[in-house]
Design brief:
Elements: H1 2-6, E1 9-13, H2 22-32, E2 38-42, E3 48-49, E4 52-53, E5 67-70, H3 77-87, E6 91-94, H4 104-120, E7 123-125, E8 131-134, E9 139-142, E10 150-157, H5 160-171, E11 177-182, H6 191-198, E12 206-211, H7 217-227, E13 233-237, H8 251-255, H9 258-269, E14 272-274, H10 277-289, E15 297-302, H11 305-317, E16 321-322, H12 327-336, E17 347-348, H13 355-366, E18 373-378, H14 386-394, E19 404-408, H15 415-424, E20 428-429, H16 432-450, H17 464-476, E21 481-482, H18 484-493, E22 501-504, H19 507-517, E23 521-525, E24 539-543, H20 546-563, E25 572-576, E26 581-590, E27 594-601, H21 606-609, E28 612-616, H22 621-630, H23 634-638, H24 648-664, E29 668-678, E30 685-687, E31 691-694
Parallel strand pairs: 1-2, 1-5, 5-6, 6-7, 10-11, 10-12, 12-13, 13-14, 15-16, 15-17, 15-18, 18-19, 19-20
Antiparallel strand pairs: 3-4, 8-9, 8-11, 21-31, 22-25, 23-24, 23-25, 26-27, 26-29, 27-28, 29-30, 29-31
Helix pairs in contact: 3-4, 6-7, 7-9, 10-16, 11-16, 12-13, 13-14, 14-15, 17-18, 19-20
């Protein structure tokens, strides 16, 4: 990866003498950026391009070539790669389009390029990419001339257009950049590779990413987790790809769309996900220019009470604490501010404040030991010199050890002041909520980075042979759906508690089983073709005597036959009724990230309520604790309204066991227990229903 950012020699294959051609622009940009290494245009039809000697092919170039930038028609790229291999090229930046983005033929051509690259040991960026910029190497190997100033922000993007947007934005700010990378089709180099390099790059302190999809999910998470412990990673994930199950048969599958999976993956990896380009810019601005806060105490200073109220609301929404000032602070504010001013947080220096009053108030609150962040907000008034205030606040740049953000709220009257702040490196926003949100993101990152290393997961052992027999039987019958009994046998094999039950093929048999296990009981239709039994009248609960069981069995068989005549019905399960709170524990296997574990409020309305949380296996005790605590219904489990707490220890044990089943058997694509009945503390849990789906075997 060194050669990608620090190449000493670069050949542009497909360089062109014609103005406006991509091959011409790339050579021009490399020259204009000040690249001082060997630069070799390659074009068999030209002898000179932009004052540089042009070579007919790579072999003709004297000496070593570390990197090539390829801008030729896609059909020619394999030939270029073979030449590059013979020349000893280390990395190829393939600008050329016409690969998998255009369909099947392009995808095969891309695979061919990949095979050649692997054979020669060449790393490939792209194809179909904008290129790469490394300001430390004075290298603009792209076809955009928006070369940024040198700084500490690195940007990776799956979209060349987004890179162009960020570069254009950079021109209007004081933010400097270390690297710009357009990954394109990601034939080889992807986000995980770049994180591996950037985490150790001394010139990069903040990493921004635009992502449309991740192919190596586990590797991305591993590299992001390690990199985020030293450098903030801010990711704009766009698009809702099909990595989640499209035709999910379980509630878990329906709730695990790819976007939710990305949310879980990024949260577990320490990546701050943003939703808009504006949010990306907001965070790049504050993280690249301000020190991390040492706590969550926020001080607000403004000349408009309304702005202070809005900022206080934003702080509450973002989990920030309005700092309680020490007596020395309020005494000093009282002595220096007019009687009408508010000396408590938010500090209102009132509308006739001048630059000196603003400066005094900001310096005073910054000296307070309870203040860890400051937001200064200004509304335009006829009495205020906005430019003087901005110049005063700009003087804090680089001289304070706590982060400060500003919000000059207005339009034309604020333009000059905003420009002064940007030039000084003070992050400025056009609304209080954006300024506070940016500082809140810094505080959340500080908290994340300060967490201790996660504890190891508890050891879980299971009867693999028993599970394998169940799966082999289903495969032999060419089934992807398992019956409830089969699903429960998998759970039992891994120690998940299942209430006593028996299978009945007739009403008389159901009555006998009910009498054996004891009333009350639940009756459920037994069918590998029916995922949601309640929807077809296939569940009867709280049956208390023989007659209720007999009547329920007969009615159930009739209803199911009417509503799903094609379903295979094997009778009914008679199950001991288990009392408790209803929750759902499930797993769906994501194509990129692997097993995704879902926990939440259970029952028949889970998809409507959507009160669930998700994490990607493997799990940690801290992660499971967070899963359970994060749902809105958590107070129901802790003993709301005087009720005893639920058996959370037994519940968490079930979550770990489901995750272990998913890890041990990759052919299981969905596994759901809905509901898990959670008894009071010490009473345990019961998995009263189970649904499992396996991958269809390829013929």
């Amino acid at each position: 990866m060194r050669e990608l950012f620090e190449a000493r020699t670069i050949a542009v294959v497909g360089a062109s003498p014609k103005e406006g051609k991509v091959g011409n622009v790339i050579v021009k940009n490399l020259i204009a950026s000040g690249f001082s290494g060997g630069l070799y245009p390659v074009n068999p039809k030209a002898t000179e391009i932009l004052g540089l000697r042009c070579y007919p092919d790579l072999a003709s170039i004297p000496g070593e070539v570390e990197m090539i930038v390829v801008a030729v028609p896609s059909m020619v790229v394999p030939t270029v790669m073979e030449e590059a291999g013979g020349k000893g090229v280390k990395v190829a930046v393939v600008i050329s389009a016409g690969f998998k983005e255009i369909g099947k033929e392009g995808a095969e051509l891309e695979r061919e390029v990949g095979r050649i690259a692997r054979r020669w040991g060449i790393r490939v960026l792209g194809p179909n990419c904008l290129g790469v910029i490394s300001t430390q190497n004075r290298m603009n190997a792209t076809f955009t001339n928006a070369y940024p100033r040198e700084g500490s922000v690195a940007i990776t993007s799956q979209s060349g257009a987004i890179n162009s947007v960020v570069l254009d934005w950079a021109r209007a700010t004081s933010i400097g950049f270390s690297k710009f990378v357009s990954v394109g089709n990601k034939l080889d180099i992807d986000e995980a590779d770049l994180l591996t390099y950037l985490r150790d790059d001394e010139r990069t302190s903040v990493i921004g990413m635009y992502i449309e999809g991740i192919d190596r999910g586990k590797e991305f998470m591993a590299q992001a987790r390690e990199a985020s412990m030293t450098k903030p990673i801010i990711a704009l994930k766009a698009g809702r790809t099909g990595s989640g199950a499209k035709a999910a048969s379980s509630h878990t599958g329906a709730l695990s769309g790819s976007d939710k999976v990305y949310d879980a993956a990024m949260a577990q990896s320490g990546v701050m996900r943003v939703k808009t380009v504006e949010e990306l810019f907001d965070l790049l601005q504050v993280f690249s220019s301000m020190p991390l806060p040492k706590g969550d105490g926020l001080a607000i200073v403004t000349n408009a009470g309304g702005l202070g109220v809005m900022a206080a609301d934003a702080a509450s929404d973002g989990g920030l604490t309005l700092a309680s000032f020490a007596k020395a602070t309020t005494d000093k504010l009282r002595a220096s501010l007019p009687e009408e001013a508010n000396i408590y947080n938010p500090v209102d220096v009132i509308g006739d404040a001048d630059a000196a009053r603003f400066e005094g108030a900001i310096r005073t609150v910054m000296d307070d030991p309870n203040v860890h962040m400051v937001v200064a907000m200004v509304a335009p008034t006829d009495l205020l010199d906005i430019t003087a205030v901005a110049r005063t606040i700009a003087s804090f740049a680089g001289k304070v050890d706590i982060p400060i953000a500003t919000a000059l709220v207005g339009g034309q009257n604020m333009a000059e002041g905003a420009a002064l702040l940007r030039a000084a490196g003070i992050p400025n926003y056009d609304s209080p909520d954006r300024a506070v949100w940016a500082l809140g993101a810094m505080d959340r990152y500080r908290e994340m980075r300060g967490r201790p290393a996660p504890s190891p997961a508890p050891a879980v052992e299971g009867d693999r042979d028993a599970v394998r027999k169940v799966l082999e039987k289903a495969k032999a019958e060419e089934r992807t759906g398992l019956s409830e009994e089969e699903g429960k046998s998998i759970l039992t094999a891994y120690g998940v508690p299942v209430p006593a039950e028996g299978h009945a093929a007739s009403a008389d048999e159901a009555v006998h089983i009910a009498g054996t296990i004891g009333y009350p009981v639940v009756l459920k239709v037994s069918s590998p073709d029916i995922a949601h039994k309640t929807d077809v009248g296939g569940v009867a609960v709280n049956l208390r005597d023989d007659e209720e069981v007999r009547r329920a069995y007969q009615l159930m068989m009739s209803r199911v036959k009417d509503r799903m005549p094609q379903a295979r019905v094997d009778g009914a399960l008679v199950e001991k009724m288990f009392q408790g709170r209803e929750v759902i524990v499930g797993m769906v296997r994501d194509a990129q990230f692997g097993p995704v574990i879902t926990f939440g409020l259970g029952g028949i309305f889970v998809e409507i309520m959507k009160d669930v949380s998700q994490r990607i296996a493997p799990l940690t005790p801290e992660g499971v604790d967070e899963m359970v605590r994060s749902i809105k219904a958590y107070p129901i489990l802790t003993g709301a309204r005087g009720r005893r707490p639920a058996d959370l220890a037994a519940l968490k044990d079930v979550i770990f066991r489901v995750a272990k089943i998913a890890e041990d058997f990759p052919e299981i694509t969905e596994l759901e227990i809905n509901p898990v009945m959670v008894g009071d503390e010490g009473e345990g849990v019961g998995a009263v229903d189970a649904l499992a789906t396996i991958r269809r075997e390829k013929r």
